[in-house]
């Protein structure tokens, strides 16, 4: 059964529309929804939905009253990263949605997200997560308690220190909530012979079999009509379920849309220096 794919984004940026377009292409039976602003309405593809952040912000504004800024990131940016979960929760309640896929505006999706196994992604990646409403309700209550109650905030800061003095962000609280409240084992984004991308510029997590890198980014192959990463320690490939073009890699997004992928099934790889899909060597 298809589930809605939801983006929440405030900025007026063209890559948003491209990522929505790809979500529609990979999940044609799903509603694809942007909770955004009047300014970015123009980026939504035909057939997608647009709703206003302001119409679902009451709980988010309440959270702002006791938010504590403990990050080197911009105050407004970091606050909104937390507020979006309240906006998403309230949107799901109003629209009677029980389960959705949330994507950041710089994620390209390539798989059918309706597989039940993907529910194990719940809040593991804040940029690519399958959420059901009861879990999201619990997470919002968790955020409220941990910012409002000093003793819980101190425990959260202790956790930040234990993982290398990480700044307090919603990425950290997602993992903390998942590990200590949901108690779900980490997938690291890997499901069988496929993976959801953590960050194009990072390798897979250390417990996982690694794939090739190219110029500090995952080396992405085109093989048999789909994108893959090639394993380094054994023969084989991992199929790409999603790619996360975080930060400076956003300008690569257009080259990974279906219209710009190789037109035949011969093995290709993407060359970041030239922004071209090139035929791979026989040894690849």
From TrEMBL:
Superkingdom, natural source: Bacteria
Protein name according to UniProt: Lipopolysaccharide biosynthesis protein, LPS:glycosyltransferase
């Amino acid at each position: 059964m298809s589930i809605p794919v939801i983006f929440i984004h405030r900025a007026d940026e063209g890559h948003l529309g491209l990522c929505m377009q790809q979500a529609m292409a990979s999940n044609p039976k799903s509603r694809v929804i942007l909770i955004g602003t009047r300014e970015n309405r123009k980026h939504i593809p035909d057939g997608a939905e647009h709703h206003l952040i302001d119409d679902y912000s009451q709980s988010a504004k309440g959270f702002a009253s006791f938010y504590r800024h403990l990050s080197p990131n911009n105050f407004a940016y970091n606050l909104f990263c937390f507020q979006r979960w309240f906006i998403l929760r309230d949107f799901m309640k109003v629209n009677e949605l029980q389960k959705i896929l949330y994507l950041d505006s710089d994620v390209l999706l390539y798989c059918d997200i309706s597989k039940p196994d993907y529910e194990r992604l719940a809040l593991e990646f804040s940029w690519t997560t399958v959420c059901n409403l009861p879990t999201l309700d619990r997470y919002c209550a968790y955020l409220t308690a941990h910012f409002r109650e000093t003793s819980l905030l101190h425990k959260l800061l202790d956790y930040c220190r234990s993982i290398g003095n990480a700044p307090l962000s919603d990425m950290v609280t997602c993992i903390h909530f998942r590990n200590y409240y949901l108690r779900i084992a980490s997938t690291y984004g890997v499901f069988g012979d496929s993976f959801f991308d953590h960050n194009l510029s990072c390798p897979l997590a250390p417990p996982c079999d690694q794939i090739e890198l190219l110029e500090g980014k995952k080396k992405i192959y085109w093989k048999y009509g789909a994108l893959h990463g090639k394993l380094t320690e054994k023969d084989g490939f991992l199929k790409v379920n999603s790619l996360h073009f975080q930060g400076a890699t956003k300008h690569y997004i257009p080259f990974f849309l279906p219209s710009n992928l190789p037109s035949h099934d011969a093995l290709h790889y993407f060359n970041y220096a030239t922004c071209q899909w090139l035929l791979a060597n026989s040894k690849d």
